[in-house]
Every structure is written in C-alpha cells, then in structure tokens.
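Hello again, I could really use a second opinion on something today. My current little project is about how a certain protein chain folds up. You're getting the sequence in one-letter code plus the fold written as tokens. Here's the protein in full, and shout if anything looks odd to you:
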Amino acid sequence: MAIRKRAATAKKSKAKLDIRTVATAAGVSVATVSRVMNKVPTVDAQLSKKVWEAVQRLGYVPNTQARALVSGRSRLLGVIISDITNPFFPELIQGFEDKAIDVGYEALIGSTNYDLQRMEQCVQRMLERQVEGVAVMTFGIEQPILERLSSEGIPMVFIDVAPRKKNISIIHVNYDQGIREAVQHLAALGHRRIGYITGPHLLHSANARLDAFLSAAERVGIRVPESCIFHGDHTSEGGSRGVEHLLSIKQPPTAIMCSNDVSALGAMHAISRAGLSIPDDISLIGFDDIKLTEYVLPPLTTIRMSGRDIAASAVYALLNPGTAPKQVETSLIVRQTTGVPPKAALAKTSSSRSSSPKRHR
C-alpha cells in the first residue's frame, strides 16, 4: 500500500514538472528558460548553465511538440528512403541524423518499400509533425504525392532528378567516374565479356548506372550483347537470378558487374552454388560499398558511393534552400573478387576476335 502511494505521489510530482518548475529551481525567469531551451545564442552563459543544471537535477524532459506549437518551428528534418532493409540506407540515415543533430535538429525517418501508398503515409506524417525540410532519398521521383510537401513551401532535396520548383534542390551523383574505373580495371585484367545485373528499370539511378556501364564498355572497345544484361531489382534474389541467366547463355561472361552490393551478394551465392570460384572462374564487382562487403569471403570489389556524403549534402541543401549542394563522387574500391579471366576464356576470346570484325555497341 505504501509503495503504491509513493508511486502515485511521484507520478503526480512528475506531472507538475514544467518550465515554471525549472525556472524556480534555476532562479531565473520563465522567459529565460524558454530561450535556453530553444538555444537562443544571446542568452548569458552563466544563466544558461543554471538552467541546464536545474533541468538535469529535476530530470525535466521538454515537450517538443508543445514548443513547436508556440514557436512555429518543429526543428525536425524528414528523410524518406526506399528500403530500410538495404544496408546502404542505415548508413545514410545515420549520417543524416548526425548532421541534423549537429545543427540542432532531429530526424524523422520514413521508408516507402517502393510502395506509393507507403510514400503517401510518410508524407502525411511529416506534414502532421510540421517538418522544416524533407530529403527524398529514394533515387526516384514520386511527384504527384510529393506535390503536397511542395505546396506547403517545405524545402526538399532529391537525388539526381527533381521537379523544377522553388525550394527544391538536387544532389548530383557522379556515377560515371566509379563505373568507368571499374570497367577499365576489368579490361586491364583481360576481360572482354562482361555481364551486368541492373536495378529496377523505373529507378533513375539504376538506369544512370546502366548507361554509365555501357558507355564505359564502349570506350574500351568492349561489345556488350543484350544477353549479357540481366534486368534485376536491387535484391539478393535478383542478383542470384541474374547469375543463373548469365551462366546459361552461349558465351557466359568472365566478369559480372552489379548495380548495387545487395545484388552482388546474391550473385556471390549463385556463383558458389554453380561450383565456380571467385575470382578464379569469374570476377565480380558491386556498387555502394556497404560495410558488409569488407567482411564477406572473398571481400567484394565495389564502387564506393558514400551514404554519409549524400546525407551531409542533403542536410546542407535543406538548411540552405537555393544553394546547390556538393556533387557526390564515386570511386572503385579494389578488394579480392576481381582477377584475370580463366585461360580457356582468354583463348576462346582471342580466337573469336581474330575470326570476326570488332563491333561496338
């Protein structure tokens, strides 16, 4: 009975704990506490110290929603991603949240899972929470739904492409650089038959990566027949199916490039199931450089696109509308899944090249 009474008293005491209690404990005015809690830089340092000491001593937790109603500012930045299960996105989210916290904001995260209804729910939640900016990190545009944010005048930032409207910024990714380095790396090793596993055809970034691959292959004189391109979906299952297709064609490739690392990890399993060795029988390159690629066996050669760099550019763009964010670069990271093609493949390629004219795609 006594325990229940003490718990009820504590609950009642905590319920009464508000900004006025903090002001009394710190010996300052309510207005001063408000300015300190809102991180107004002109507050005297000694007064600010007293307030934070009182906050810590009392265990006071400010009601951020109530503060947002009074100030008209939520100090919230939204970030919308495609797939929370893809290891690339947690790194991006962590980078976004770190940068947001550094400048006194919080992050509100939404994942669409490539579903338009989920996207609509994300947008609705962000409108309800009065976000001050939204980073749309889906690598594609769902324009009709996002019009709701635009109509409210909320700053937005996209990757690669975006609607032409005020307060909308674009983060450009230099896919060409890293992919060109990867193709040149394979060509220097002696590969002349290179397969490619794409991402979803509706995804702008996946199409940009495929175009960059075909362009880089043409530059080094490598013809890429349609049979060497498998249209995947950025999943491990898609990568696995891609390998099964590429190994079934009349002249299988000696190297495979994937549109993302998740596809490449699925490809690794399929290559192993086929009884082949990486890189002795076939070379493999991914894209993204997710953390896991360092620890698989053998460690994956991949193209680095830093999620943290994208996150930093996104936060900068949201807080500085109208200012062009820094371009995100890509680069090849050579590990242990690329090597010279097998001798039989080299002999077959040499014979084929001597008996037929060179053609370019």
Observations:
- Confidence is low (pLDDT under 50) at residues 5-15, 349-361.
